[in-house]
Design brief:
The protein is of the alpha/beta class. Helix content is 43%, strand content 13%. The radius of gyration is 23 Å and the shape is globular. Bound molecules: pyridoxal-5'-phosphate.
Length: 468
């Protein structure tokens, strides 16, 4: 047994560190060792339970109702109900599915999204046959434009979407104005607070000025908030809230017309582990309101300080002033952000490259965890050094003929051999080993149109995921 565990630990050596504050995307670290230990023990305690049927595991019902009540209180939903899901994507998928199924008379439903909405809405569009109508955001602020959103609504619109805040830029859309647009037309309005929903209420409680974004705004019908981000719980937990039980009804699925048990599901999963739910409950109880208020303030202050420090680095700037705990950084023409990201990795820090998009420059995303705050000076020094090094090296040059070719390729016409060749050119080879430096790969992807980026990445994943 110890031998097998040792092998797991050895395999983990190649992973990004989940704790210690040096990873600024994917993982969120409270820095509270006791909360982590509690989460681990709760996971172990509940690993074999099944949330398929809350009548036979009544403890899971209690835990879920407790967590939903907590979130409803935070997000000012007087009569709100909700569901604990496996993550932000599942919460969003369910919000879209529910809106679609609440309007069975609309044969070809659509939803209106700002261009900054999370990719999960496009996944929902793909899965559920809901057309995504994408609306440009304000060029200067990266926020949704209520007039343009209103103009995009029509008789087929089943959902309007906004973010609090957006993942890529960390800005909060004008929720009251957008809610008015949706409710004037009787359309559901989802606020994606996956990453901000456990931060903004605590910042507000701590005296930070926070524009209304939750159920206090009339017309907001559902909100998603992830526990496995800024509630610092183990992975696999998010909440989807609906303003009323009536609005939630179409989310539920039952099937009695087969020979087995009557299936009754609130989520996309049927058999589901109670472990992430129990762990989330335990961590939330342990950290508590005061703890979250402190953690939110710590991360927010560190984010603002980082933004100021980045602005002071020659050649670096923020895309938008942070409103929560996220910041996006861009570089001027002397360096490319992909090289900066590689230089950060070389210095022990992970920041997340974001490709250029609709005229917006490529950038680096940083999600600030509370555990990073005590190491902020170190992070800033690494950033200074990484930028200087990237400027000395100069931006990665993509051969102009390659960039031209990338624009002309129709991915629908490529076969497996063609993808093999393209992946080789992109430096992603057979997928067996990843390149040390990702900048050349990212620079090449960056000149490709989104459809080609997607096709290449899928081809890459397809080759990566083969049994050994
Ligand atoms: C993280 C995130 C999501 C998706 O959540 P997952 O837990 O990764 O599925 C959706 N929206 C926003 C704004 C997010 O930050």
């Amino acid at each position: 047994m110890t031998d097998v565990l040792a092998r797991l630990r050895a395999l983990q050596q190649g992973d990004l560190p989940t704790h210690g504050g040096s990873t600024l995307a994917y993982v969120y670290d409270s820095g509270l060792a006791e909360a982590d230990e509690l989460g681990r023990q709760a996971l172990a305690l509940y690993g074999a339970t099944n949330g398929l049927d809350p009548t036979v595991f009544p403890s899971l019902r209690t835990l879920e109702n407790d967590l939903v009540a907590w979130a409803a209180r935070l997000l000012q939903g007087g009569e709100a109900v909700g569901t604990v899901t496996s993550g932000g994507t599942e919460s969003i998928l369910l919000a879209v599915q529910t809106a679609r199924d609440a309007a069975p008379g609309i044969a070809q439903p659509s939803m209106v999204l700002p261009s900054t909405a999370h990719a999960a809405f496009h996944k929902a569009a793909h899965y559920f046959g809901v057309r995504a109508v994408v609306v440009e955001v304000d060029e200067a602020t990266y926020k949704a434009d209520p007039d343009a959103m209103a103009a995009a609504c029509d008789d087929t619109t089943v959902l309007v979407v906004a973010s609090a805040p957006s993942y890529a830029h960390g800005v909060v859309d004008p929720i009251p104005e957008l809610a008015a647009v949706a409710s004037a037309r009787g359309i559901r309005f989802h606020v994606d607070a996956c990453i901000g929903g456990w931060v903004l209420p605590y910042l507000r409680a701590g005296g930070v000025e926070v524009a209304p974004f939750d159920f206090v705004v009339p017309g907001v019908t559902s909100i998603s908030v992830d526990l496995h981000k800024y509630a610092y719980t183990p992975k696999g937990a998010s909440i989807l809230l609906h303003r009323t039980a009536g609005l939630r009804r179409p989310q539920y699925f039952a099937h009695a017309d087969w020979p087995g048990y009557t299936m009754l599901n609130s989520t996309m999963q049927s058999t589901k582990s109670g472990a992430p739910l129990a762990a989330a409950w335990a961590v939330v109880q342990h950290i508590g309101d005061e703890g979250y208020q402190r953690l939110a303030r710590t991360s927010y202050d560190a984010t603002l300080r980082l933004a100021d420090a980045a602005e002071a680095i020659d050649g670096l700037s923020v895309l938008a002033r942070p409103e929560t705990t996220l910041v996006a950084l861009r570089s001027d023409e002397r360096a490319d952000v992909f090289t900066i990201a590689d230089e950060m990795v070389a210095r022990g820090w992970f920041v997340q490259p974001q490709l250029s998009f609709r005229g917006q420059p490529a950038s680096l995303h940083l999600s600030m965890s509370a555990a990073t705050a005590p190491r902020l000076d170190e992070l800033i020094a690494a950033l200074q050094a990484a930028v200087a090094q990237a400027q000395a090296a100069g931006p990665v040059q993509v051969a102009p003929e390659l960039a031209e070719a990338a624009k002309a390729i129709d991915p629908a016409l490529l076969d497996d051999a063609a993808f093999d060749g393209l992946l080789e050119i992109a430096g992603l080879g057979s997928g067996e080993t990843l390149p040390d430096r990702m900048a050349p790969v990212n620079a090449l992807l960056d000149v490709a149109p989104p459809r080609l980026r997607e096709a290449l990445l899928i081809a890459f994943l397809d080759r990566l995921m083969r049994p050994s």
